[in-house]
Specification:
This protein is mainly alpha-helical. The chain has one domain. It contains 3 helices and no strands. The termini are far apart.
């Protein structure tokens, strides 16, 4: 909700938004890893909640966070340039 609040206010390229986006990526990766752990521990043939799309979504969110962080660094560098 905090991330959407930043976007609503027009705050896009800040360290806080990057942190929120990276936290969202960690949540997706943790969801994938916990699903894999439960699958291995239970050793059932049925699907326990492991979804490979969570893995790809997590990495994609990290990539978006990295892009926004690079844009933030470039913007800060441009503000210092005369």
């Amino acid at each position: 909700m905090r991330l959407f609040g930043f976007f609503e206010k027009g705050i896009l390229f800040t360290a806080e938004t990057v942190r929120c986006i990276q936290l969202l990526g960690w949540i997706y990766l943790l969801n994938f890893l916990l699903g894999m752990i439960f699958l291995v521990l239970l050793q059932e043939n049925q699907r326990v909640g492991v979804d490979v799309s969570d893995l790809f979504t997590g990495f994609f969110i990290f990539f978006i966070g990295w892009l926004i962080d690079e844009a933030r660094k470039i913007r800060e560098e441009q503000e210092l340039t005369v």
